[in-house]
Design the sequence.
C-alpha cells in the first residue's frame, strides 16, 4: 500500500506541477477534469444512501458552466440563466419521474460543492499575476495538512472532531494553520523578489485563512464519506483514493484566495 502511494505521488505530483507551469488551455482542461471526476465521486458516494441524485443534469450543468468560462461569457446574467434552466430541468424531472425534492437538493449541492468551487482555480488564474497566485491554493492546503500531521503526531492530545476524523487534534490544527501562514508569507517573499510587489502581510493573512478553510474542506469531505459509509470516494489515484480525497482542501482554499483577491485587488 505504501509503495503504491509513493508511486502515485512520484507520478502525480510532477504532472500537477507541469500543468501549473504550462497553464493555458491545459490548465482549464485540468480543472474541468477535476470537476467532472469529483462530481462523479460525489454522486457515486450517495448511491450508498437513500438519496438518488439526478446525475445527468449535474453533468450537463457542469459542461455548460465550464464552456461559458472557456468562452469568457461567465457573467452574472449568463450564470443566472444557466441556473434557471437547470432548475426547470430539475422540476420537469420531478414531475416526470416523481423524484423526491431532497434528491434535487443533493444534486444541486454537488454542483455547488465540486464544479463551482473548483472553478475558482480558473478565476484566480485569470487574475492579474494569476500564474503566480495559482500556486497558493495548493501550497497552503499541502502545508496546512503537513503541519497538522507532524504537530499532531508529536504534540496532539485534544481531539478536534472525533466523530468525523478521529486522528485530528486541536494542536495539529493550530500547527497546520501556522505552517500554512508562514509558508504563504515565505511564498510572498519569493514573489516579491521577482517583481510581484505585494505586502507580505497579505500573504500571511491568506495563509492563515486558507489554513483554516483547508481543514474545513477536509472535514466537509469526511462528513460526506461518513454519511455515505465509505472509506474513499474512489480509487482514481491508487493508494490515495479519489479526487475528492486528495483535493478536498483545495475546494475550499481556492475560493478563499479568490474572495480575498477580489476584495483587496484595488490595493494590489
Sequence:
Amino acid at each position: 500500500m505504501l509503495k503504491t502511494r509513493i508511486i502515485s505521488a512520484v507520478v502525480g505530483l510532477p504532472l500537477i506541477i507541469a500543468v501549473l507551469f504550462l497553464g493555458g488551455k491545459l490548465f482549464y482542461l485540468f480543472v474541468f477534469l477535476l470537476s467532472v471526476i469529483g462530481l462523479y465521486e460525489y454522486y457515486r458516494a450517495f448511491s450508498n444512501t437513500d438519496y438518488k441524485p439526478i446525475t445527468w443534469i449535474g453533468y450537463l450543468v457542469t459542461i455548460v458552466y465550464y464552456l461559458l468560462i472557456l468562452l469568457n461569457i461567465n457573467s452574472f446574467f449568463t450564470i443566472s440563466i444557466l441556473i434557471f434552466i437547470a432548475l426547470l430541468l430539475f422540476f420537469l424531472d420531478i414531475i416526470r419521474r416523481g423524484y423526491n425534492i431532497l434528491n434535487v437538493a443533493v444534486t444541486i449541492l454537488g454542483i455547488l460543492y465540486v464544479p463551482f468551487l473548483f472553478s475558482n482555480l480558473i478565476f484566480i488564474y485569470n487574475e492579474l499575476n494569476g500564474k503566480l497566485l495559482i500556486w497558493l491554493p495548493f501550497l497552503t492546503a499541502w502545508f496546512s495538512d503537513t503541519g497538522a500531521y507532524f504537530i499532531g503526531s508529536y504534540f496532539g492530545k485534544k481531539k478536534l472532531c472525533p466523530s468525523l476524523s478521529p486522528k485530528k487534534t486541536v494542536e495539529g490544527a493550530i500547527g497546520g494553520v501556522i505552517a500554512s501562514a508562514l509558508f504563504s508569507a515565505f511564498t510572498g517573499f519569493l514573489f516579491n523578489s521577482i517583481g510581484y510587489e505585494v505586502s507580505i502581510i497579505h500573504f500571511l493573512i491568506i495563509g492563515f485563512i486558507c489554513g483554516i478553510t483547508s481543514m474545513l474542506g477536509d472535514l466537509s469531505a469526511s462528513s460526506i464519506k461518513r454519511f455515505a459509509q465509505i472509506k474513499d470516494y474512489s480509487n482514481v489515484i491508487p493508494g490515495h483514493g479519489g479526487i475528492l480525497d486528495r483535493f478536498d482542501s483545495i475546494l475550499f482554499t481556492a475560493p478563499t484566495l479568490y474572495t480575498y483577491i477580489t476584495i483587496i485587488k484595488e490595493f494590489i
Notes: The mean pLDDT is 87. The CA atoms of residues 148 and 173 lie 5 Å apart. DSSP finds eleven helices and two strands in the chain. The beta strands are 159-161, 165-169.
